[in-house]
Amino acid sequence: MTFRPTLVALGLGLVATAATVTAQSNNQGGATAGDAERGARLAYTCHGCHGIPNYRNAYPGYKVPKLVGQQAPYLEAALRAYATGERSHPTMFSQSESLSDQDRADIAAYLESGGVPQDRPVVGTPPPATQTCVACHGDNGAKAVMGDYPVLAGQHQDYLEHALRDYKSGRRKNPIMAGIVAAIDDKDIPAIAAFFANQPGLCGMEDLRKHGACKK
User: Of 13, 39, 169, 195, whose CB count within 10 A is highest?
Assistant: First the structure.
């Protein structure tokens, strides 16, 4: 099923032999080669939260995001935002502020390496409000058109709701998202989040550790 958008899209979330992944480094304006094997070693502290199924952030309460299969440039940008305070989260600040650009690229390459195919069919009927999402993130939320746009498919519903509301309130600072989410009615946020959460896509670090990738 192909779902065509009619509104401006959201501009927006352990394998020793894993191939080196090239990831865009936004702050350098070029490309940083991410070493997934090194990233697997650097990411050991991430397992404490992201490697526990359905582990919840204490306050506000939501499931910590799934990271495996996420686009590497988006992960790099997110880590940089936590390190600079652009995204506010005490634990993530302490985890990210000492990372170098190369560290971020390597961790991101490792996490991206366990992804699933992007061409899976859409599950269910997209609610009308997702018209503002699919041109950038794909009909199923797994085919983001740019590297620094996140994959939404398979992400926890409550995390997606939390992220959308943070963009709407300005707690997450992104000029594209701020403008677009401002036009989304609050009552539509749960439906958007539920649709993308129900699509096959991202998985938790426990799958990467146990199976080497998200389970197909």
Answer: 39
